[in-house]
Amino acid sequence: MAEQSSLESILDDLAVPVLRVEAGSARVLFANAAVRALPFSLVPLDPTPVLDSEGVRLTPEQHPVARAARGESLEGVLFHWDTPEGRRAFLLHARMDHSRSPGVATVTLQDVSPWQRAEADLRRALGARDTFLSIAAHELKSPITVLQLVVERLIRGARRETTFSGAQLAERLEPALRHIRRLGMLVQNLLDVSRARNNRFELELETFELGSLVHEVREHFSAQAEQVGSRLEVRDCPPVEVHWDRMRMEQALGNLITNAIKYGAGGPISVQAERVDGVVCLRVEDRGIGVAEGDRERIFNPFERATSGHRVESLGLGLFIVREIARAHGGSVGLTGRDGGGSCFTLCLPVRATGEYE
Ligand SMILES: Nc1ncnc2c1ncn2[C@@H]1O[C@H](COP(=O)(O)OP(=O)(O)OP(=O)(O)O)[C@@H](O)[C@H]1O
Ligand SMILES: [Mg+2]
Questions:
Q1: Would the pLDDT of 286 be above 80?
Q2: In testing the pocket of ligand 1, which one of 142, 258, 262, 303 has its CB within 8 Å of the most ligand atoms?
Q3: Could you tell me the CA-to-CA distances from 72 to 23, 36, 75, 103, 273 in Å, in that order?
Q4: What's the CATH number for 118-197?
């Protein structure tokens, strides 16, 4: 008896739920502390439905504990339990001791929810990467096709000995230049992603006036914004000397503005800067489609997009690059929704970055 109680106290110390059930009557002979700590009762079976590995609801007779109590030996049966905190996954093992009469089933449970979640995340990340690869291939291909057409037309013209005026030549080459720029940007983004992933995002720090950068970026993107009917305005920008990588900051602010143009549904876009003590926050606001709360963190990961379906010029890299630029400056970037729809991205950086990667 003393031996049994010391065995039971050892079992009580285990983190793994262990249950001893009498075959036939399904009477619980012993349940360790881990069983009692579960968010549901095993015997009698909790009224919360139990689901099989495919998510199909099991009848009480199909419940793995009920099967074990009927004398079945079970080797890693996967099932799910819906708890108020979300779905949890368990592997159940049952061994039958036939040396007794009636027999006794020893049931152990293994909570595999963290592994299932990690697997689901991994699958999603792999899926996002596959989508990225096919979009990237498409994105790289289309400017190349246009370039090829432009060059072929010029060669045909030259063979026919057609002379082009300077203006005609410039007109014909203009689309090529646009596509070369797009190609350059794509390749730059791809390079930046691999640099950021290898922690080789080095900064070239210099001291400059913040307003000059903000207005320059606005100027650069205002025509693009106008094309989709958006007005791009700088609402507020205090005079402040910052010590940042100017080119990288242009890129980060440019990525946020490009998104506001792409997803801003033609509404007004505003850029605002604010200094609070040693930190400067840049805010880019639009009144477009916004981002659902559940997507607001993951869109900063590489290849992640909140919009479904194929969208040209959407690789899911822009925000990842913004986040890495912020990190390299010792700052951060975040997203909040706007009342009345739209997004507000806030990029906060110390006025003087040191360039020390965390
Ligand atoms: N201002 C915004 N409003 C609504 N959704 C946005 C906004 N900015 C980003 N998103 C969502 O976040 C996703 C990730 O943005 P990100 O800039 O990283 O990639 P992208 O714009 O899809 O492609 P690219 O690599 O060309 O920037 C977008 O696909 C979009 O779903
Ligand atoms: Mg983008």
A1: yes
A2: 262
A3: 9, 23, 10, 11, 68
A4: 1.10.287
Give the domain ranges of the chain.
2-111, 118-197, 206-350
The more confident residue out of 140 and 351 is 351
- Find the 263 Cα to ligand 2 centroid distance in Å: 9
What's the CA-to-centroid distance between 203 and ligand 2, angstroms?
Answer: 22
- Domain at 2-111, CATH class: alpha beta
311 or 214, higher pLDDT: 214
Confidence of residue 311 (pLDDT cuts 50, 70, 90): low
* Residue 351 φ/ψ region, left for φ over 0, alpha for ψ in the -120 to 50 degree band, beta for the rest: alpha
List CB contacts of 204: < 8 A, sequence separation 6 or more: 245, 246, 247, 248
Query: Any idea which architecture 206-350 has in CATH?
Result: 2-Layer Sandwich (3.30)
Cα separation, 183 vs 188, whole angstroms: 8
Predicted confidence band at 47 (pLDDT cuts at 50, 70, 90)?
A: low
Cα 212 to ligand 2 centroid, rounded to whole Å: 23
